[in-house]
């Protein structure tokens, strides 16, 4: 444990408490990208119809990439609290036919990144007790003492108490044999890490909203851009996205960064030592002080460290820089 002896947090925070019967959850990212926004949205809505079927997920967030120029991206961030339910959904004829018949050429690209996450290798952190953030849509959250110190993220991952969770491949670069015009599939090496770190300013009043958008959001955007552009940090791919309403049309005041890391240690190193993350941390604490430590801004994250083979990555007609293809060998 990294927790300093006698440590007491200076503010409350909350973490997910899974039922004893829950061994693992499934978190999946399904995405479509192309130059025609209408065609991309139509493809996303086709996926939506499948997600509402039998054995569908417990929760779905619909998002778009924050910066869209010539290409438009729509992603479904999908949660199952049962591995068996996900397996039954994925193997159903309707879903299997849809995925296998996706064209391997043409203007649209599709991909899926699906992680089966043992709860012993999963941690969450919420700045308040809100039942609508990621897994808290279907799993209770409770106060935790394991925060407000460097190393709290690792301490909240139960398997870290028996293992350093070192990466199997210190420079993970999946072998990909192409992109456009074909399918590329691979799985993860041991201890690949993932973070979804999210921001929700939909409940903020005018003054607090102005502070967030002026002082905090730009530092967050800079940090997301840095890890996306600098694989030497240990981040294999990062995507900055904004949530949409249920019709895939209207942007919401909620964003998140989705990032895969070579290891938990690489993620920790960036959070502790890199100026871009220090700027994010400093901007948030400046906002706390400015508003007398009473905020309606909601911040939360989810982090997992995956056993070998626990994630499946598949890219259909995708450009080389898509998802983990960005880290693939030429």
What does this structure look like?
This protein is of the alpha+beta class and 330 residues long. The radius of gyration is 19 Å and the shape is globular. The termini are far apart. It has one domain (14-327). It has seven helices and 13 strands.
Provide a quick synopsis of the model:
With 330 residues, the chain is α+β, with helices and mostly antiparallel strands. It has helices at residues 37-51, 83-90, 93-100, 152-155, 206-229, 264-273, 275-290, and strands at 14-16, 24-34, 59-65, 72-80, 109-118, 122-126, 141-143, 183-187, 192-200, 235-244, 251-261, 298-306, 311-316. It is 26% helix and 30% strand.
Unreliable stretches covering 5 or more consecutive residues = none
What's the overall geometry? globular
Rg, please? 19 Å
- How many β-strand stretches? 13
What's the number of helices? 7
Biggest sheet record: 11 strands, antiparallel
Mean pLDDT: 93
> In angstroms, what separates the terminal alpha carbons?
40 Å
The total number of structural domains is 1
Element string (H = helix, E = strand) = EEHEEHHEEEHEEHEEHHEE
Range of helix content: 25-40%
Strand content: 25-35%
User: From the structure provided, what is the oligomeric state, counting identical versus distinct chains?
Assistant: single chain
For the largest beta sheet, what order do the strands appear in spatially? Answer: 6-12-9-11-10-3-4-2-5-13-8
Structural class: alpha+beta
